[in-house]
Specification:
This protein is an alpha+beta fold and about 160 residues long. It contains 3 helices and 5 strands; from the N terminus they run αβββααββ. Belongs to the UPF0145 family.
């Protein structure tokens, strides 16, 4: 696993309309904590931020340089024992929590790898962020996070 404090926190900041600052007690998605900063991922070993945006711009920032496409992916397989239990649960109905957890962890790992790839190019932002999923082989799933690595400059 990459050295990120909490992958879930990165996803929460990604999905929150206004990102909570590091000092903010608000840790829930869609938090109303006020901050002028956009959603960002932060590593444990540095306070440098990688701003993540699903659109091609970031309010309050100017794109100075596009550094190319970056991606992060992971391919996971399901546990045979859990797969059997999930098969039994499918007769009853309801959420298959073990699959939900596997999918969430896979998305988080793909996002962590995308942020690491952006940092390796010297980027402080990723715009046009997208997720894709697919099946590589039977009983496997691939999760891909991709976008354009950019250098951003805060507007005055």
């Amino acid at each position: 696993m990459l050295p990120f404090r909490s992958s879930l926190r990165h996803l929460r900041r990604l999905t929150a309309p206004v990102a909570a600052s590091r000092e903010s007690p608000c840790r829930q998605p869609f938090c109303s904590a006020s901050s002028s900063d956009p959603p960002a991922a932060t590593t444990a070993d540095t306070d440098e931020r990688v701003v993540l945006s699903t659109v091609l711009s970031v309010p309050g920032y100017e794109v100075v340089e596009a550094l190319g496409v970056v991606e992060g992916n992971t391919v996971r397989t399901r546990d045979v024992a859990r797969d059997f239990l999930a098969h039994l649960k499918s007769y009853i109905g309801g959420e298959l929590a073990m699959y939900t957890q596997l999918q969430r962890e896979s998305r988080e790992e793909a996002l962590d790898r995308l942020v690491a790839a952006a940092r390796a190019r010297g980027a402080n932002g990723v715009i046009g962020l997208r997720y894709a999923t697919g099946t590589v082989a039977p009983q496997t799933s691939e999760h891909l996070a991709y976008g354009t690595a950019v250098r951003l400059k805060r507007l005055p």
